[in-house]
Each structure stands twice: as C-alpha cells, then as structure tokens.
Amino acid sequence: MKRLILIAVLVLAPFSTVHANNLPVPPEKSTEELYHDLFISLLSDDIQKHVNEYYSILLKDDPLVYPYEVYIKQAKRTQGHRSFRFTVVMEVTPVIGAHNSVGKDELTYDIQPGHAKLIKYKHLETYEIPPHLKGVQL
Fold first, then answer.
1. In angstroms, rounded to a whole number, what is the distance separating the alpha carbons of residues 33 and 30?
2. 22-26, 104-108, 116-120: which range is least confident on average?
3. In DSSP terms, which residues pair with 110 in a beta bridge?
4. What pLDDT was estimated at residue 3?
5. CB of 92 within 8 A of CB of 48?
6. Rounded CA gap, 14 and 16, in Å?
C-alpha cells in the first residue's frame, strides 16, 4: 500500500502553484494535494526523527515539524523510466512553541519499494529564537 501511494505521489507531481519561498505546492483540494499529503504523512516520523537529531545539539526541547511545513523541492527517478527507485529532496521548517520557526532544513531521501533512507541532511538557515523562548536553547 505504501508503495502504491508513493508511486502515485511521484507520478502525479506536476504542481501548478508555488509557495512563498518558490517551492512547488499542489493546487488546493486537488488530487495532487491529497497524494502529497499522504506521502508526507508516510515519512513524517522519519523526518521528525532526523530533525530532532540535528537540533538536539542546539535546543533542550525537540522542535516540531508540521506536515504542512514540508515541501517537496524535487522528486526524480534514479534508474530511468518506470523504475521504482527515487531521490526526493524536501525542505522543512521546524518550530518551537506557538509556531516559532527555528530554522530551515533540506532532507534528501533515497526511496525504493518498502524502504526510505535519508541520504543527506543539510541545515539551510537558523532563525533567531524569540526572547520568551530563549530557555530552550542549550
């Protein structure tokens, strides 16, 4: 089932709108949005785990990654047409407290049937933590 959803998401990836930071997002209430959200939901625990690992050296508390703050920057087949191995690059914006962004990160996954592996984690930006949340910093 996971494989079917993953394939559907990646096949139906022609997004027609763009997020404020020029990342593609599917049209609201579209089939593409549904598949995008299903795909992100399947990876959300793994995304959260890797974000927690990175920010554990900076913060006392784990930041949250909301599914609506995960954007697919790029998805491609790595072994040609109709192959089932993909490289997917995502951008996430982890938050603490009431939606206070702590940074921006890029995660690259190697995905094949039944398996998703993080192959690269890149921290893109660090945001200043508001004064009332300074206690969460190490």
1. 5
2. 22-26
3. 87, 117
4. 55
5. no
6. 6
Residue among 77, 81, 80, 102 nearest 92 (CA): 102
The Cα-based distances of 96 to 15, 61, 126, 129 in angstroms read 29, 8, 13, 9
> What residue ranges in the chain does DSSP mark as E strands?
17-18, 24-25, 70-77, 86-92, 95-96, 100-101, 103-112, 115-126
Read off φ and ψ for residue 116, nearest 5 degrees. -130, 125
- The neighbour count for residue 111, using CB atoms within 10 Å, is 23
The owner of tokens 């022609």 is 14
Q: What is the C-alpha separation between 99 and 95, in angstroms, rounded? A: 5
The pTM assigned to this predicted structure is 0.82
Give the CA distances from residue 80 to residues 62, 76, 83, 85, 86, in Å, rounded to whole numbers and listed in that order. 38, 9, 6, 9, 10
Across 45-70, average pLDDT:
97
DSSP-assigned letter for residue 35: H
Residues 10 and 86: beta-carbon distance below 8 Å: yes
* Dist. CA 15–CA 27, nearest whole Å: 7
